[in-house]
Design goal:
Elements: H1 11-33, H2 39-42, H3 45-58, H4 61-92, H5 94-109, H6 116-123, H7 127-151, H8 155-163, H9 168-205, H10 211-220, H11 224-252
């Protein structure tokens, strides 16, 4: 039986998504132009777009955007690597997992944003403190997903692999890692945004460059249009990085059947 509620794909999907975006901007413009929403507090979409255009046309945004992207990518890469390594280690070492459990939970429960001033003292006001904060935000997301992914491996699959003579290294490569990959990539989509949060919050607390620095300066002068311009630029960059993660995910998980590949009855 065919499902009447089919999901649009390809170009049609992109057109629908663009129409939704235009509708949101139109609603924003209508509400502020009619003063239902005060422009002083909610900005004006046309001026926001003009500000973004001026940034890129003059090149003023590139040094700031470059710094924020470097901080984000480094935090994302190191946080993902640490989360993957520690998650694998504790998932495959029950004794270590039991010993580390209360400390992992305590560190995860702590609001990590409060570490930003400490990192600024330890690593200075340069890139290092922003990367360190971003790592703490990314690490736990990846760690818990990797840990759970490894623990979810079917005991039957493990028993069959051991019966065929698979050693610890073969199990890690052919059983544990493939099982954890779906969980890892699920966490990476969230981690991209968290890496940006770490970079921007760090720039708020002390920096001379970065999109977060531009937003902070605009807030100080009550320039709400520039604030929204910075937010939109950061959002667009986060979507681009998330798209890159999705491309890598499709390549590495090509062996998994997609939802649309199942036969309809």
């Amino acid at each position: 039986m065919n499902d009447s509620h089919t999901v649009p794909s390809g170009l049609r999907l992109r057109v629908y998504q663009l129409l939704v975006l235009l509708a949101l901007f139109g609603l924003w413009w209508g509400l502020t132009a009619s003063a239902i929403l005060p422009p002083f507090f909610f900005g004006e979409p046309l001026r926001v777009l003009v500000r973004i255009g001026e940034w890129f046309a003059s090149g003023d945004i590139y040094p700031h955007l470059g710094v924020t992207l470097i901080e984000t990518v480094l935090a994302f890469a190191f946080g993902t690597g640490l989360g993957l390594a520690v998650g694998l280690w504790l998932a495959l070492s029950p004794t270590a997992a039991v010993l580390a459990d209360p400390y992992i939970k305590a560190a995860n429960a702590m609001p990590r944003v409060i570490l930003a001033p400490i990192f600024a003292v330890w690593f200075g006001l340069g890139i290092g403190s922003k990367v360190a904060l971003g790592i703490t935000l990314v690490f736990f997301i990846v760690f818990f997903n990797v840990y759970q992914g490894i623990r979810e491996v079917s005991p039957v699959v493990l028993a069959n692999a051991r019966m065929l003579g698979a050693g610890r290294r073969q199990l890690l490569r052919h059983v544990y890692l493939p099982s954890a990959m779906s969980w890892v990539f699920s966490s990476l989509h969230t981690s991209v945004g968290m890496a940006f949060v770490g970079a921007v919050v760090g720039e708020y607390l002390g920096s001379a460059k970065g999109v977060g620095y531009l937003i902070l300066q605009a807030e100080g002068s009550f320039d709400i249009n520039t604030v929204f311009a910075g937010i939109l630029v950061l959002t667009a960059c986060a979507l681009l990085l998330d798209g890159l993660v999705s491309q890598v995910e499709r390549r590495l998980l090509a062996w998994q059947p997609g939802q649309g590949n199942t036969e309809k009855i």
